[in-house]
């Protein structure tokens, strides 16, 4: 039977996988309050289950999930565990460098959490600058909106808010026994200083917009602000299938394409038997 998890390989098997050019898939998430209906670990659950599904159809291997991320906006609510930015960045970069040391030079990061993005991009460029590895960053929620938009057609303006779609339907499909669709709450965001919210940290002011930084409970006491009325496991399954097809195609392309140009490339670490 094909092994899809890096942690299930022996040391000889991991040596062979590195030498054959296997792509590593790194699920990254967070543990945070997402409202009374949604799971604390919804971000990493989707990333992990997607990675496993993609690995089963490609030559890729799934690295152990990095469960904790940057969730300081939600730390005033129960269930949130946040790392500081330096610790998060150091953790991810160290894991990536260890993958390189073991001979892997193709790593795809799966991340559903917006606050994690900038540090991951910086790490990706650092690896590019040092010509150590090709890194890619995929947002499963963004991809789902693009490739499975028909499944969510007709949703209201607040459906994509924190804790909402397409995340809600994906989780309903992947982990449906644990969610609480019955625990719905009024969606939407509160104004701050009389300013109309355009998002959780963007507010309208006269002819443009400004950034303000309220805590999540200040913009919605539930810690989430999505309309999940139309969420369902059925639409989640349709979306997840399309998401998997897209990511499989990307991983296969990524694994056979040299993203680093020859002009920039320096000698990469090699893996030798014995």
Give an account of the 3D structure.
With 274 residues, the protein is α/β, with parallel strands linked by helices. The protein has two domains: 14-184 and 233-256, Rossmann fold, CATH 3.40.50; 187-221, no CATH class. The protein contains eight helices and six strands. It has a four-stranded parallel β-sheet, with helices on both faces. A two-stranded antiparallel sheet has the order 5-6. A hairpin with a 2-residue loop joins strand 5 and strand 6 (208-211). It is globular, with a radius of gyration of 20 Å.
Can you summarize the main beta sheet? 4 strands, parallel
- Identify the overall geometry: globular
β-sheet strand percentage: 5-15%
**The first-level CATH class name of the largest domain:** Alpha Beta
- Rg, rounded, reads 20 Å
Summarize this entry quickly.
The chain is α/β, with parallel strands linked by helices and 274 residues long. It has helices at residues 11-19, 42-55, 85-101, 117-129, 140-147, 167-174, 216-219, 233-256, and strands at residues 24-28, 61-62, 106-111, 134-138, 202-205, 208-211.
Which terms summarize this structure?
alpha/beta; two-stranded antiparallel sheet; four-stranded parallel sheet; Rossmann fold
Strand-helix topology:
Blueprint: H1 11-19, E1 24-28, H2 42-55, E2 61-62, H3 85-101, E3 106-111, H4 117-129, E4 134-138, H5 140-147, H6 167-174, E5 202-205, E6 208-211, H7 216-219, H8 233-256
Parallel strand pairs: 1-2, 1-3, 3-4
Antiparallel strand pairs: 5-6
């Amino acid at each position: 039977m094909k092994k899809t998890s890096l942690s299930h390989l022996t040391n000889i098997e991991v040596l062979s996988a590195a030498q054959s050019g296997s792509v590593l898939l790194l699920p990254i998430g967070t543990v945070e309050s997402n409202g009374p209906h949604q799971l604390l670990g919804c971000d990493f659950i989707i990333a992990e289950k997607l990675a496993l599904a993609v690995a089963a159809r490609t030559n890729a291997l799934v690295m152990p999930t990095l469960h904790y991320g940057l969730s300081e906006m939600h730390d005033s609510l129960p269930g949130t565990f946040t790392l500081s930015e330096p610790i998060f960045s150091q953790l991810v970069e160290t894991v990536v460098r260890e993958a390189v040391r073991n001979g892997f030079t193709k790593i795809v990061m799966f991340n559903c959490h917006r606050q994690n993005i900038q540090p991951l991009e910086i790490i990706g460029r650092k690896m590019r600058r040092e010509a150590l590895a090709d890194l890619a960053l995929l947002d499963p929620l963004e991809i789902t909106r693009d490739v499975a938009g028909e499944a969510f057609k007709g949703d209201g303006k607040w459906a994509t808010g924190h804790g909402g779609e397409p995340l809600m339907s994906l989780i309903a499909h992947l982990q449906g026994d644990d969610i609480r669709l019955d625990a719905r709450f009024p969606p939407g965001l509160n104004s701050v200083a009389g300013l109309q919210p355009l998002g959780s940290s963007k507010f309208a002011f006269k002819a443009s917009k400004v950034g303000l930084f309220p805590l999540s409970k200040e913009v919605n006491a539930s810690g989430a602000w999505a309309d999940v009325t139309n969420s369902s496991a059925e639409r989640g399954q349709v979306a997840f299938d399309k998401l998997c097809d897209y990511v499989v195609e990307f991983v296969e392309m990524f694994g056979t394409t040299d993203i680093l140009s020859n002009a920039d490339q320096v000698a990469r670490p090699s893996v030798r038997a014995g």
